[in-house]
Structure of 4-diphosphocytidyl-2-C-methyl-D-erythritol kinase:
Amino acid sequence: MLPENLPVYPAPAKLNLDLRIVGRRADGYHLLESIFILIDWCDRLAIVPRDDGQIVLHTPIDGVPPEQDLTVRAACALRQAAGCLNAGADIWLDKHLPMGGGLGGGSSDAATVLIVLNKLWNCGLDAPALAQIGVKLGADVPFFLFGESALVRGIGEQLEAVSVPEQWYVVAQPACHVATAAVFAHPDLPRNSPPNPAADYAARQPFRNDMQDIVCRQYPQVAEALAQLSEHGEARMTGSGACVFLPVPNRERGEAVCAALSLPARCVRGLAQHPLREII
Ligand SMILES: C[C@@](CO)(OP(=O)(O)O)[C@H](O)COP(=O)(O)OP(=O)(O)OC[C@H]1O[C@@H](n2ccc(N)nc2=O)[C@H](O)[C@@H]1O
Ligand SMILES: Nc1ncnc2c1ncn2[C@@H]1O[C@H](COP(=O)(O)OP(=O)(O)O)[C@@H](O)[C@H]1O
């Protein structure tokens, strides 16, 4: 899928271990408090600069026009912000993460492009400048640029590091795509969880996801996936779904749970840091 002999840049997925809606902005966007972690399930990208000013995605995704792909939008936004208007790039994306699954794949792809092209084009932008570009592409992009477990607040732009114990997870993939905007617009969505600014893994427990009940009502496949996973422990939905996850003590246990489910699932490990952390 990627050309041979080129460096491969990973774009890891995220899980929302805890997700609360604590209010709403004047423009209708919801204010969240969420513990985000990175996991070792990744899209893979190859990125090579070109000097004719063109940004070419060689691997368009079915149903996503290249100019709307978050990789291309990230490259264009960086070029604009850095003022290097003649910079171009060849981009190849080897997509592994389910789309619209609440795993943040598109945002992570965008973050990886920002990190890598900031170096390859010698833009010299610092992390806050990249995050400012990123949040306009997607609410989860600043988290991927932050590069470690975080308490994320606002709509995704306020980040604070959180120490999360090393952990394995089973991630199960119901056969549906959740329309995030419709879930946020639902009249019965809980919007008033009490704010709790403590960036502390233990103090925030028990974890929950304020979007989960509405999504389960509207998508029986998500409810069924949660019911199956819950037979093995405390399962929850990630983001606005559709994927659901279960913490497990080790890989062996995770593989055994996957084998017992009747839907696609994989055992993944939490990452302490983004694999590109050293070049962020
Ligand atoms: C809830 C999270 C948690 O990570 O879900 P996932 O997308 O990862 O599942 C994200 O914050 C999702 O943010 P984002 O990725 O920007 O959502 P989008 O699909 O772009 O938003 C679609 C629509 O949902 C509403 N929206 C989105 C984010 C937010 N904090 N409040 C909102 O009210 C807005 O109407 C927006 O136009
Ligand atoms: N590179 C990309 N990868 C995934 N989705 C993309 C990409 N570029 C644009 N999109 C669009 O963004 C939507 C949300 O993608 P994704 O980040 O995978 O979901 P989620 O926010 O639920 O984790 C997709 O349905 C797709 O239309």
Notes: The longest strand covers residues 30-50.
